[in-house]
Design a protein that fits this description.
By secondary structure, the protein is of the alpha+beta class. It contains one helix and five strands.
Length: 93
Amino acid sequence: AEDMKGGTFSISNQGAFGGAHFTPIVNRPEVAILGLGRSADRAAVRDGKVVVRPLMPIALSYDHRVIDGGAAARFTVDLVQAFEQFDESLVKL
């Protein structure tokens, strides 16, 4: 609880432990949490063709008293686009 003091948003990555899709629970005093599942190669349609792509399940839970559903949906769409356009060559380990 002390680590979350003053927090408004958190991320739960169950994919690191092999978890797939799940529904994260908002912990007070936070107003939202993003759940990330394990990515896996799956069939996807791109430009009218079926291709194999790594897909990662995500779930956003939020308090409707604080966050409008439309804003949450736009955030999710923007996040997916950012993941799709992410340039891994920019990551330095």
